[in-house]
Amino acid sequence: MGKTFAEKVLARKAGQAEVVAGQIVIVEPDHLLTHDNSAAIVGKIGAELKEFGIARPEMPVIVLDHVIPAANEKTATNHRITRDFVGTYGIKHFFDVGVGVCHQVMVEKGLALPGDVLVGSDSHTCSYGALGAFATGIDRTEAAALLLRGQTWLKVPETIKVVFSGELQPPVSAKDLVLTIIGDIGADGASYSAVEFHGDFTGLSIDERFTIANMGVEMGAKVAVFPVDDVARSYLSSIGVGADRYESVWADPDAHYVRELTYDLGAIEPVVAFPHKVDNVKPVGEGADLEIHQCLLGTCTNGRLSDLEIAAAMLDGRTVASGVRLLVLPASKEVFEAALDRGVIARLSRAGGLVLPPGCGPCLGAHQGALAPGERCVSTANRNFKGRMGCKDAEIYLASPATVAASALTGRLSDPRKMR
Amino acid sequence: MRVWKYGDDINTDMLFPGKYTYTCSTAEEIKPHLLEDLDPEFAGGVRSGDLIFAGKNFGCGSSREQPVVGLKAVGVQAVVAKSYARIFYRAAINQGLLLAECADAVDAYKDGDAVALDTEAGVINVGGRAFSFPKLPPEILAIREAGGLLPYTVQALRGSGGQPRRRGRGNAAQG
Prior knowledge:
The complex is a heterodimer of chains A (420) and B (175).
Chain A: H1 5-14, E1 24-27, E2 31-34, H2 38-44, H3 46-52, E3 60-63, H4 73-89, E4 93-95, H5 102-108, E5 117-120, E6 134-137, H6 140-149, E7 152-155, E8 159-165, H7 174-185, E9 194-199, H8 206-214, E10 223-225, H9 230-238, E11 259-264, E12 271-273, E13 281-283, E14 294-298, H10 299-302, H11 305-315, E15 325-329, H12 333-341, H13 344-350, E16 353-355, E17 376-379, E18 395-398, H14 401-410
Parallel strand pairs in A: 2-3, 2-5, 3-4, 5-6, 8-9, 8-11, 9-10, 14-15, 14-17, 15-16, 17-18
Antiparallel strand pairs in A: 1-7, 12-13
Helix pairs in contact in A: 2-4, 2-6, 7-8, 11-13, 11-14
Chain B: E1 3-5, H1 12-15, H2 27-30, H3 42-45, E2 51-54, H4 66-73, E3 78-81, H5 86-95, E4 98-101, H6 103-108, E5 115-118, E6 123-126, E7 129-132, H7 138-145, H8 149-158
Parallel strand pairs in B: 1-2, 2-3, 3-4
Antiparallel strand pairs in B: 5-6, 6-7
């Protein structure tokens, strides 16, 4: 019997000839990601850090992104505690306020590589599956234990196989595809499992693969992973990562899967996740009359250059509807500057967009962009939970960059195919 | 002892709103906001020894651990749900909070039923009927028995708790 991606990568990492789904292995992750929660993590182990130190100073990656620039004395103090910790313990990979959202920074800086085992105290750590990494979220306490000991346990997951064929028909994009999958299998459809993407997906850009892998946790997945192909190798090469720096892993052809799904990308249509669950997915047309107050374009899900370009192309020369706030949240400073150089930022701004610092704040209601009772937001982010953007009496609709841009122009939830 | 009953897909934003994530970290800071957007009566009404019953995919969403830290701090004896999201499941192990995965017990429960939990046996009694739930494999149970992951880690680093075993097959641990 062949092995799945998860079985092969975890066997290698655990130093075992082979492992099978259900087995528990001890691994030393290649990196541990933490962000603004670093202060709370370090705060749990003050005495232990003095006694034992850091297991591997090259393992932690710390990115300040969730409340940036600091909103108040408390969050500013969190940042200061984090900087002090970085200095005291010689943390090698630290990215201060303004570099970008942690998941984008991990990738841009070449810290998430094919075949790596990566954990992070953030649920969207699964994003790095776009590059063939085994990447998954953990809680703060486990992050603290990892700082001290450098290892943790993982249960080798069962795997679901998703086979793609055909090509997405713009303005339909990866967000529509992943929301469709989540709508089909449910918010727990891949619980405890790995999800492998197979078939023909050469038409999916690396940005689109990040969107899909990022949303893996919204179907309950432990990891959501693409194989490393020419598209991935070309991206890695573009950020200065040569093939000598990683050893990619992929499933055997006769691996065992607990479930198989197939999708014809050509048949995917624009969809929206209606409040308050990510699997409450319906065709965009079902919300055609809903008045919109805020549009959020960006985040770790859809804040890369191609996402901003799609929106800019739709908004070009027009302005957002009266009464609509369009917030633009680039995934990183690099993305922001690339968009600046290509005139994308100018086009978004002139259309009425308000460009925010590259961080996470609005997505989780932690900083900027909060909603008022009765308001509706169409967002390219990954969660529409009740209260998510700071108000339990507001509504969040998750959609693609094209649908968000179309909705910003009309002030109503709109089908981007009708706006071109 | 009271049973607090909720539905499917109770996410971590409902258990503890994201807007407090970077201003509330200690148990005392967390307690007043527990389940704030789900059940405004919970934070003021919960007592030590209470139980939570819920549907499938309990704890889905964010990796924030405040819900687990808070539920443990107010003395919730256990959560009994049809299934759990994996990060929440790990977080509960790490804090020493008991999660029982038992769909039949959740379906059987009616308001007012007497409920009793036998952790050692892995059995929950609901209205006179007994339901068993899977126990954690020994190497993971050891974390909970040490009082949580940090005490366990310190024991291991000092050598008194030994290194975790390198092999083993788990049935219940979902992490």
